[in-house]
Amino acid sequence: RDQEISRQDLATIMYRYVKQKGKGFSGSWMFLLSYVDKDDISEYAYEPICWLSMNEIINGKGENKFEPFGLATRAEVATLIMRLSQKI
Question: Across the chain, where does the E strand assignment appear?
């Protein structure tokens, strides 16, 4: 209850749902993120962030940063759920 969630963890949760629905990356794939802080993204969250970015579900913050450890706001969560529901 009232737990905070990082942007990369939110992306990972959403992508696991996408994979359960039979979507997402399969086989070999390559997608390079252009965020200036891409090296700060945890390994487990890189694929989810790539897919969600490629499909315009999640965006970076200002100054071309993703801010993987930044906290997701309620507004961001609502927006991502809406965008995701339109994609799958």
Answer: none
